[in-house]
């Protein structure tokens, strides 16, 4: 298990459409372990594989509040199968957009389907933080970031800030 470097905007990898996982191999299991380590270390409540540079449809999440009792979830090929008409606003952040938080409106409740590491298909209902998190992470698999749900003005401002920072780093 190891902590992997996070992919940060404006890295264009974050815009890739991730490929479905065809088979749960030892490599996939290892990747899931690394993703969980990386996510807990950050710390964050969710991580998509592309955020450590691997364009496959796998997500790790842990929305439990407790520090001592981790409730890790590994979602393989997750998809939203139903979303409520009612919306909800929640302040989101992203490990690929460090220290930036903004309110995002999304469906209040969703039903999602995924395969776990044992190869079982699971369908689950979510509300609250879990609903927000699963929608945010599945967006990543399609190259979508939470800032895409904001106004163009806000999005441009964030992108400009991170582009400048990346340039400074490259020049240093
Ligand atoms: Zn994110």
TrEMBL record:
A Pfam family per the record: Pep_deformylase
Cofactor, free-text remark: Binds 1 Fe(2+) ion.
UniProt binding sites for Fe cation: 94, 136, 140
Protein EC: 3.5.1.88
Catalytic residues as annotated in Swiss-Prot or TrEMBL: 137
InterPro entries the record matches: Peptide_deformylase, Peptide_deformylase_sf
UniProt cofactor(s): Fe(2+)
One GO biological process term: translation
Listed HAMAP family: Pep_deformylase
NCBIfam families linked: pept_deformyl (TIGR00079), PRK00150.1-3 (NF001159)
Family statement: Belongs to the polypeptide deformylase family.
Reported function: Removes the formyl group from the N-terminal Met of newly synthesized proteins. Requires at least a dipeptide for an efficient rate of reaction. N-terminal L-methionine is a prerequisite for activity but the enzyme has broad specificity at other positions.
Stated name of the protein: Peptide deformylase
Origin species: Microvirga tunisiensis
Gene: def
């Amino acid at each position: 298990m190891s902590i992997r470097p996070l992919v940060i905007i404006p890295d264009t990898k974050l815009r890739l459409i991730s490929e479905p996982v065809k088979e749960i191999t030892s490599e996939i299991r290892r990747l899931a372990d690394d993703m969980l380590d990386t996510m807990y270390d950050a710390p964050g409540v969710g991580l998509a594989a592309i955020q450590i540079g691997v364009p496959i449809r796998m997500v790790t999440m842990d929305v439990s509040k407790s520090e001592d009792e981790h409730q890790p979830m590994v979602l393989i090929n997750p998809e939203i199968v139903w979303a409520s008409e009612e919306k909800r606003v929640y302040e989101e952040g992203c490990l690929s957009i460090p220290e930036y938080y903004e309110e995002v409106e999304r469906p209040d409740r969703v039903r999602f389907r995924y395969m776990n590491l044992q190869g079982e298909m699971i369908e689950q209902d979510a509300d609250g933080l879990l609903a927000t998190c699963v929608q945010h992470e599945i967006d990543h698999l399609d190259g979508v970031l939470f800032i895409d749900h904001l106004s163009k003005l806000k999005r441009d401002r964030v992108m400009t800030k991170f582009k400048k920072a990346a340039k400074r780093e490259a020049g240093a």
